[in-house]
Amino acid sequence: MSTGPGYRDRAGSRTALRVLGFLCAGLGLVLVVSGFASVASSMNNPPFEPQPTPTIWPAFVGMPLLGLGIVLLAIGFLGAGARFVSSEVAPSLNRGSAALGFGGPAAPACPACGGSNPAGGAFCQSCGATLNRVCASCQRANDATARFCAGCGRPISG
After folding, report:
1. What are residue 97's phi and psi, to 5 degrees?
2. Residues 57, 99 contacting (CB under 8 angstroms)
3. What confidence score (pLDDT) does residue 144 get?
4. Nearest to 129 by CA among 106, 108, 113, 107
5. What's the CA gap between 158 and 154, in Å, rounded?
6. Contact 110, 129 (CB under 8 A)
7. Given pLDDT bands bounded at 50, 70 and 90, which one contains residue 1?
8. How far apart are CA 109 and CA 144, in angstroms?
9. What angle do CA 143, 149, 153 make, to 5 degrees?
10. 16-38 confidence digits (pLDDT tens)
């Protein structure tokens, strides 16, 4: 969860939007259901009897109230929804762009000092430690921390 400087300042506004949205949507839903139920119940009376006047006005008041409540809820939960979507989508985008070759090779970190080095370097620019180990069997370059060769699977000595 984000904890930037403006994030906590808006917590009260988000809570107010969520509570107000829930109340508006709930009241609107109750009014819409009661208005349509009144119309539906007036249709079930037998013919030739006095028909009660259906009260449809609650449905007309409830529909905009329900819409307003849904909009307020959407605004109140917008940040949480956006953070969820970005946490789900970003790893896939990173893997996809790396598979397509965007971004270039990652700079290897030195296993000894943790310094950043350009791709393809054999020694660390900060401490001089070796960045890869060559397999004695197949002559393949492996990471400096590798215990087994990625090419042939044999143990790497030294």
Report:
1. -70, -35
2. no
3. 75
4. 113
5. 13
6. yes
7. very low
8. 10
9. 155
10. 999 999 999 999 999 999 998 88
Distance, CA of 58 to CA of 74 (rounded, Å)? 24
Distance CA 134, CA 125 (A): 19
Phi, psi of 142 (to 5 degrees): -120, 165
**How far is Cα 36 from Cα 28, in angstroms, rounded to an integer?**
12
146 compared with 65, residue with greater pLDDT? 65
Q: Which pair of structure tokens corresponds to residue 58?
A: 């609650």
More confident residue, 129 or 64: 64
Contact 124, 131 (CB under 8 A): yes
**SS3 state at 45:** coil
The pLDDT of residue 84: 83
Q: What are phi and psi of 60, to 5 degrees?
A: -70, -30
